[in-house]
Design brief:
This protein has helices at 2-49, 55-79. The chain is an all-alpha fold and 80 residues long. Helix 1 (2-49) packs antiparallel against helix 2.
Length: 80
């Protein structure tokens, strides 16, 4: 009887904890990915302002990074 009680009470709880942990991991991964692209955009801006890259290179990099950001947002929306 106690084994059955343990199974009925603890298994759903363990499953819920596992799902919660998985969701937390996915949210953290997404936040990190967005942060990476944002950081690259800032680095690109700084490089341009310091004269390390010209305007053409700045625009090329910025376009690529914005496309990446938009792609990630679109993928996120489709997965919901």
């Amino acid at each position: 009887m106690f084994i059955l009680d343990d199974l009925l009470l603890w298994l759903p709880l363990k499953g819920l904890v596992a799902v919660s942990k998985r969701l937390e991991d996915l949210v953290e991964k997404e936040r990190t990915m967005e942060s990476d692209v944002s950081s690259e955009l800032v680095e690109n801006q700084i490089s341009f302002e310091l004269g390390e890259i010209d305007e053409k290179e700045f625009n090329r990099r910025e376009e690529r990074l914005l496309e990446e950001m938009n792609k990630r947002k679109k993928d996120e929306e489709e997965s919901e």
